[in-house]
Structure formats: C-alpha cells, structure tokens
Amino acid sequence: MNQEPAWDLYRTFLAVLREGSLSAAARSLGLTQPTVSRHIEALEDAVRLRLFVRSQRGLTPTEAALELAPYAETIASTAAAMLRVASGHGAVVGGTVRISASEVVGVEVLPPILMALRERHPHLTIELVLSNTVEDLLRRDADIAVRMVEPAQEALVAKHVGMIALGFHAHRRYLDRRGMPATLGDLVQHDVIGFDRETPAIRTMLKRVRGVDRSAFALRADSDLAQLAMLRAGFGIGVCQIPVAARDPDLVRVLADAFVLNLPTWVVMHEDLRSSPRCRAVFDALVDGLAAHSKAGASSAHREPGTRPEMPPDRLEW
C-alpha cells in the first residue's frame, strides 16, 4: 500500500456490504453506479485485495472483505459521532444526540419524555436506536444508552434511576375466556407468551422463576414488542412492565403475589460527553423521566424475595 485510501472509499465499501449490489449501494449513497464501481476498484487496488465476487445474487463479499467490515463500521460510527459533536456547538442547547434503548422502552416509555425535551430545547435533534442488544458507547455507536444491566466500563458515566418492575398480565378478554390462574403451576393450563431464543438475560430470569419453560409457550417471539402486541390482542398471559400495563385498563395483573421481576435501569454515556450541553440536557431528561416511570409501577409491585434494595438515585454527581 503506497497511499492510504480516501475515507469515502470505505463509506462506499460499507454501503455495498450492507446493500449487496452496486445499484442498491448507489441509491443509498446518492451516487451513480459507475462511481460506486470505481470506488470499489480503487479500494481493492489500494489494499491489494479482492473484496467482492460477482454472482447471480449480486456481489458476494470475500473473506478479506468480511474481515475488514468491522473496521469500516468503526469508521462510519466515528464519522457520525464527529458530525453529532460538531452540530452541538453554539450558544443554545442544540445539535444531534443518538440514544439507544430497548424496543419496549423506546416505544412505550421514551416518547413523552422526548416530546417534553424537544419542547424545552427545540434545536435538539434526536436519533433513536431501538435494539435489545447493548450498543458500544466506547466506540460511540450511540451517545446515551438506557440499559437494564450495570455498565462495567470505567470510561462510562452511569446513573441508576430505579427498578422497572415486570409482572404477568393478560387481557380481560382472555381471562373471561380462560379464567384466572391461581398459582404458577396453573400456567401449564394457559396460553403463555414467551421468548424463542434463550439469552443470558433470560437465563438469569429463569433462575428466579421456576416452572417457566420454553416448551410450554403457546407463542414464542424474541421481539418484546411482538409479545406485547399479542398480550393486548388477548392471545394469552405474558410478561409486561407493570407501569406500562397500568396505563391500559384492559390489561390485568396476574399472579401478583407469585411473580415480580425488578429490572435495574441505568442511563449511561461516555465520560467525554459529560461537558456537552446537548448531551447533559438529554441525559438529565432521561434520568428524570425514567425515574418517574419506575416509581409509577413500584406501588403495585412486590419486591422479589432475596433481591437487593434499590440503589440510591444520586450515584452520579455532575
């Protein structure tokens, strides 16, 4: 390699990887197909590697391309973070902040919090990433994340905002049809909504809840939103955030004395962003809103036997 490839070549390379063809990559980038083709050829010449093989299905990445892909993703994340930082400089709180949250939190909890935030700071732009995977804040895949596990990295600023309680619920239509279970053992006689693939978080939950087995689920889905939709449709009994269910008079708490799961909730960001006015404003709004959300379900949720008391909400001092 006699000359370092231009950054835009990596951007084009990543687009072709994601889209699977030159034409689709060109549309996503706003370029022409010949330009995309020239970029790929230039990058292959620069790194002296074959990156794609043409096939009837489009372009197939070579093993070398797949090895380079994570580094191209890092370049893209860094470039996006640079733009967000640049957009936030000025006399007012403004610019772009990227937030990562789980599906249910992003759809059911954050909208009113972010609406109020936008009214206070109309120059803010929010990018909301909904995923049940943990975004890498050290790589700046997101600026701020809402997490249900305590972050371990020392370079992150974290604030514990309380416990969000989960409980079994069912729609009134289902209970009118099938009756109310009296014990956890009665669930084998009911249509239970549950997970498909077992994750580390689910394995931790199963250690606390005996008698819940994947083979007994009448519906299996890894999407929490899909499970919630089936619960609201009256399909069966499923787990839902207690404060979310409390907003719907047709969702009834089931087995309240037998089951409750408290999820510790954290708002997290990279320590380099704590002096950023836009990130500080978003961070504080999320902390206040999520703390209120967790308290909304606390009065009707019973603490699990043997669980730790809540951590104090003032762990972080600005």
Sheet bearing the most strands, described? Answer: 7 strands, mixed
Shape estimate: globular
What is the C-alpha radius of gyration, as a whole number of Å? 24 Å
Instruction: Give the uncertain stretches in residue-range form.
Output: 302-318
Helix amount: 40-55%
Q: Quick check: average pLDDT?
A: 82
Spell out the helices and strands N to C: HHHEEHEHEEEHEHEHEHEEH
Number of alpha- plus pi-helical segments: 10
Beta-strand portion reads 15-25%
Give the CA-CA distance, first to last residue.
47 Å
Counting helices, strands and paired strands, the structural category is alpha/beta
Structure description:
The protein has about 325 residues and is an alpha/beta fold. It contains 10 helices and 11 strands. Strands 3, 4, 5, 6, 9, 10 and 11 form a 7-stranded mixed sheet that branches. Helix 1 (about 5-20) crosses helix 2 (about 20-30) and helix 1 packs across helix 4. It is globular. The two termini are about 45 Å apart.
Topology:
Blueprint (H helix, E strand, L loop, with lengths): L6 H13 L2 H8 L3 H15 L4 E4 L2 E4 L1 H25 L6 E8 L1 H18 L2 E8 L13 E4 L8 E16 H7 L13 E3 L5 H9 L8 E4 L3 H9 L5 E4 H4 L5 E4 L6 E10 L6 H22 L20
Parallel strand pairs: 3-4, 3-5, 7-8
Antiparallel strand pairs: 1-2, 5-11, 6-9, 6-10, 6-11
Q: What is the gist of this entry?
A:
The protein has 318 residues and is α/β, with parallel strands linked by helices.
